[in-house]
Recover the amino acids of this structure.
């Protein structure tokens, strides 16, 4: 199951969907999303932006960091139905993107966060792509997927985002899907504990988090919209 399969599963629930993607890179996911209006944000696009704009007249491209986009370019009354966060692979930047994103999400909108469940030690502890490549070579790891410490976002949302329900896609590499729906309770953790949680702890505690097939996640979200 691809990234765009997950995103489109929710985009397609909206008529004339408005879509924001943070961290676009080569545009593989962005250009496969079926939204009516799309906004791409990345510090350095890995494709010909002029040609992409011609091919996608209903898309807007901002070749700037996401912090600059939220500070200078998004309109105060602008709203998106689906927001996909796949930017810098650090918990700090991903958390900042999430906090900014919720201000521009419609009430029944969906946020998808990529790379929350690293498949191996190197993918989950490396703080940069270069460090990951070094660890991968020394450890003989075949997978080229670097995710950094974005797994900490699971702990943050589970602990501090009580107004949002969430699931983690079990059908692929692990994407978190969030929508507004207050949970009855949250796990009691210190903020320092969340910020410092080691990857080994995540691996041991992974089973306590709500992983589910995309079909079940879609049904859970639909149930919220019907209420």
């Amino acid at each position: 199951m691809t990234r765009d399969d997950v995103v489109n599963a929710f985009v397609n629930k909206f008529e004339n969907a408005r879509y924001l993607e943070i961290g676009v890179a080569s545009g593989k996911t962005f250009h496969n999303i079926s939204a009516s209006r799309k906004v791409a944000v990345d510090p350095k696009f890995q494709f010909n932006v002029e040609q992409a704009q011609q091919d996608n007249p209903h898309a807007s491209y901002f070749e700037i960091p996401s912090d600059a986009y939220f500070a200078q370019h998004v309109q105060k009354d602008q709203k998106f139905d689906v927001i996909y966060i796949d930017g810098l692979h650090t918990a700090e930047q991903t958390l900042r993107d999430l906090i900014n994103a919720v201000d521009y999400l419609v009430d029944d909108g969906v946020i998808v966060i990529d790379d929350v469940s690293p498949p191996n030690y190197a993918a989950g502890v490396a703080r940069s792509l270069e460090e990951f490549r070094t660890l991968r070579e020394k450890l003989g790891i075949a997978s080229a997927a670097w995710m950094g410490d974005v797994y900490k976002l699971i702990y943050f949302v589970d602990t501090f985002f009580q107004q949002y329900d969430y699931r983690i896609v079990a059908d692929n590499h692990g994407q978190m899907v969030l929508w507004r729906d207050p949970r009855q309770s949250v796990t009691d953790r210190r903020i320092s504990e969340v910020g410092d949680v080691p990857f080994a702890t995540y691996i041991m505690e992974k089973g306590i988090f709500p992983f589910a097939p995309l079909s079940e996640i879609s049904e859970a979200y639909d149930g919220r919209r019907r209420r």
